[in-house]
Amino acid sequence: MDIPDNYLSPETCAVLAAGALAVVGYSVRKVKVELSEKSELTPMLGIASSLSFLIMMFNVPVPGGTTAHAVGGTLLAILIGPYAACLSITVALILQSFLFADGGIIALGANVFNMACVMPFVGYAIYRFFAKRHHSDLGVILGSYIGINVSALLVGVELGLQPVLFHTASGQALYNPYPLSITVPAMTLTHLLFAGPIEAFFTYVIYRFVKRVTPNELYENA
Predict the structure, then answer these.
(1) Are 159 and 120 a contacting pair, CB within 8 Å?
(2) Of 212, 208, 214, 203, the residue nearest 77 (C-alpha)
(3) Phi-psi category of 72—alpha, beta or left, where left has phi over 0 and alpha has psi -120 to 50?
(4) What is the pLDDT of residues 134-148, one digit of tens each?
């Protein structure tokens, strides 16, 4: 769901970048505290960034100006916490944007907001809701599935609003030309049917493996 440049207006990018900066900045402060209590989190940040980067390299083009792919946001949040996951995915998105042109540079703030800020926190909140009620496995599946679909819905809305908000006097779109009737179904259906189940599957498999081998490494048990 990486948005390339010129599909979002500079105003839209600026607003989303400001939101992303606020969340990332707060995550930096929280992670500093966590690092002082658990120094072994430091190498995990690099490993998590590499894992997210690798997962997101498998892109499927989607009509409406973006792509569909798994992210691993909820998985990383469960393993190292939502704040550290936010930072790791942000680093992965920066590397993708500057080194591989996967996602625009001007739209980087929007991509960070959608994937690094929304997904880990939404997914982890759902996971913790069920985990506290002794349904951790269900929380993993629903958290990862819903988390990526909420992010996909946001991308569809952001793209679909462009021709409504930014157009010429004659009605010609200045940026993304596809309306909400195209971008929202394109994003949501692709992620509901394909990217979402893939995200939920590998999140659950890795979670079960870690819980069986080293349960103390899970964020909630650390």
Answers:
(1) no
(2) 203
(3) left
(4) 999 999 999 999 999
Average pLDDT over residues 207-215: 90
Q: Where are the domains of the chain?
A: 10-221
**Spatial distance between the Cα atoms of 156 and 110, rounded to a whole number of angstroms:** 12
Beta bridge partner(s), residue 173: 167
Going from the C-alpha of 100 to that of each of 63, 184, 188, the distances in angstroms are: 21, 26, 25
Phi-psi region of 134 (alpha: psi -120 to 50; beta: other; left: phi over 0): left
Closest CA to 199 of 191, 189, 210, 188: 191
Q: What does R_g of the chain's alpha carbons equal in angstroms?
A: 17
Into which CATH architecture does domain 10-221 fall? Orthogonal Bundle (1.10)
What's the sign of the alpha-carbon dihedral 49, 51, 57, 58? negative
Mean of the pLDDT values across residues 108-122? 97
- Rounded CA separation 41/43 (Å): 6
Q: 105: which DSSP letter?
A: S
CA distances from 213 to 95, 155, 208 (A): 31, 36, 9
